[in-house]
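Dear colleague,

Following up on Tuesday's group meeting, I ran the structure prediction for the two-component complex that the binding team flagged. I've pasted the input sequences exactly as they went in, so you can double-check that nothing got truncated or mislabelled along the way. The structure tokens for the whole assembly follow below. Feel free to forward this to whoever is handling the docking comparison.

Inputs:
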Amino acid sequence: MTAGGPARAAAARLGALAARLGLHVGGRMGVRPGERRFPGRPQPSGLEVESHSAYVPGDDLRHLDWNLLGRLDALLMRRFTAEREVVVHVLLDASASMATPGDDGKWTAASELALALGAIAIASRHAARLVVLRGDTEPRATTVHRRRAGLVAMADLLDATPPGDALDLGRALGEYAHRHPEGGAALVISDFLVEPARLEPGVAALRRRGYAVYLLQMLGRADAEPGRALASGVLHDVESGDTHPVALTPDVLARYAALLAAHQGELCALATRQRATWTSSVSDTPVPAVVTGELARIGLVRGR
Amino acid sequence: MLELANPLGLLALASVGVLIALTLLARRTRITPVASLLLWKRIQVPPVERQRFRPDLLFVLRLLLLLALAGGYVRPYVAGTAGGAAGGLAVVLDVSASMQVREAEGRRFDTARRRLDALVSALPADSPVLLVAAGYRPRVALRWTTDRTRLAERLAALDPLDTPTALAPAVRLALGEAARRPGARVAVLTDLPPAAGGLAPAELAAADWTAIGRRGDNVALTALTVDAPPFAEPADVRAEVVVRNFATVPRAVTLEASLDDVPWIRHALALPARGSRRVALGPPPRTGLLHVRLGGDDALAVDDQAVAWIPSQPPLDVLAVTESDAFAAAIRALVATAPRGHLEVVNQAGLSERAGVTAVAGVVTVFDRMAPPGGDGAGGLLYVAPPPGNTVCPSARVLDDASVVDWDAGHPLLVGLNGLEAVEAARAVQLALPPWGVPVATAASRRAAYPFLVVGEARGRRRACLAAELPPGPVTSDAMPLALLTLATLRWLAEPIADEPITLPTGVPRRVPGTVGAGEPGVLAVGDPAVVLAERAGVHRVGRAGEPTRLVLASLLDETESDVGRDGAGTWPASAAPARHDAAHGQSELSWWFYAAAAALLALEWLVWSVAG
């Protein structure tokens, strides 16, 4: 039995947040009943009548519309709106960049956001699974959980998987879409400090499999405002190993800010093209504030 | 004006260049991990901008720290205006007896004074001068002053003393004073060569030394002793004088001696070169002031005469008060040893019958194991083994086997008395110290240490408390030391107080019992018990108003001082630069402020580094 790590401690604090919020995601419907309504796909049984169809021998006569039989003298079967669960796949980038700089809290914030989304999904009677993407190994994932106890398994997975190594996020997303064609909702949490052109094929692959894709960027303070956290000298990319000398002059910092804004604009445009949803936050913002603020703004979560 | 005590310390500023180089090197090699270079690689830093040095907060703090340390290292100070301009001259002027020697150009002291005038004249008008007189002790004759008139007056008032010299303390005093003033020099004017000054080479190197004088044809009285056994006949008194020729050629001199200005002896003496003669003056015909002088002309006059006192030796007249026949026998045996002793023995009842009779001067009353308070009168009082509980000679208990373990060798009572360590007593009382007395001898038994003999003066009478019981019967060899001590005590008690002259060499302090009042010029007398010091040879008087005065007989009896011959005059300039003192008079030292600022900057730098680290 493993001792509780920081993810477990974070999971213990998410109960109240998950109880008052609901996750509203798109994506292909699952096979199990759930709370998500899927109009346009009438089912033989259900709660809400959506349409009627002609009787075919073998239909369940319990759903025969007797009123219409009496009025129209026609055998018509009630068809109901499908209500199915959505399997929420929380895909967390666990590459080395998520833990750099070490005191930025980026990995901690991303982990806590992943747990929060998993907790809200389960509380919304969706199924959820956590997938940790690392570059050196196959993605590590939990099983699909529908109960609150599954949160513990997600927390244990996070505590057991420290970030590291280089990750080709676009490729990892494409491979995941290939292995899990059942669709659902894909909540991708990463710093997205990658070329948008290399990311887009992975997002497209998920979309083709019927995933509703949500790109949730988590930046560290050193990523957003390097002047406050970095010093002049030689910068070292922790994933590629490349170095680049830089002097943090005001001009340089201004140029970096402009490049960051442009990069985020490209990611937003990518999301628009792929009919995904994009949002960005910084790691020193408390996760509950991110959930009730930015995620609520994009409609991913709503109050109950 | 701000000045630097250590200008070479400015080389420490080179550390700033080292700091810049280290900072640049650290920046070039400082590797900072980032999540991605995706955006940074799109920022190309021009080569010029890449090499430009841009200081951050840590660099600025470290730079200020280095500057503060360098600032403290160069020891800046603000030269004060108090006390006049920097520089000056500290002069040590020898005022010992040898400076009275008459050379061809005049007295050595006058030559030194002229040399001093020349030195002072060469100084800038605002340069201060300190004058130290070096006699038997150093004395600051004039503190730092630029007032040349005052200096001239003080110089004119100075005259050499009749005392030996102690030059080293005076030179050290001057060196210390000069070190407190940047650029001040020290000049020594004496008749001694530097090697004879008793100073360390470093001290000699810091002073300009001027030796004056050459003449060495001096004949001096180097010793005058008077041996007067207690209670002896005047014919048993012996006086002896030593005459020494310090010249390198034989000399013939005339020795004359007088008693109370009455000529007594005249001898012609032939002295070999650098030789001496011991002359016995024979039994003096009377008591009084003995004045010995040498005729003829020589280099130094003050050591050509000496004075001493031929004491009167009254017979020993003792009144013993005792109830014990054994004690009466013991005191009778003791008095019998004195050539002219007289003893009367009474018991306490007999003493009471004599209560109305005024005590006779010169009669010593001895009380055996009793201590009645002595009334006013003349004559000494001796309390032998006073009983416990008395108020005159307080005592505690009777002890066995007491031995003397310590004594005051300088007390007049013990002069000429040897063998005190052999003084023992089979029985003695444990004395306490009365308010009027001082311990002359201390004894120890198995139980305690305590005064054995206490003496003093009260209400015009000398008193003594003797702890030991006198052994009965004739004086044996074992009891001889105690008998001698008792006789010496009786002699001291028999001496009249007021008329006893004080004989001492010049420049040597001597403690005398009681107080003596103020001295006349040439004699210093202070304290109780008094300390007397003669600066002038000859006959002096000390005393209080309304009280009989006492004679002070002072002589220069110092072979070193009388050996006035020198190898020749010379000048030895100082070979070392004047020492600078950190806390110089009139300077405000600033270096410690810089060090305090450096400490504060160090703490701040550490704080910033730990936050940024």
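The radius of gyration of chain B is 38 Å.

Cheers,
M.
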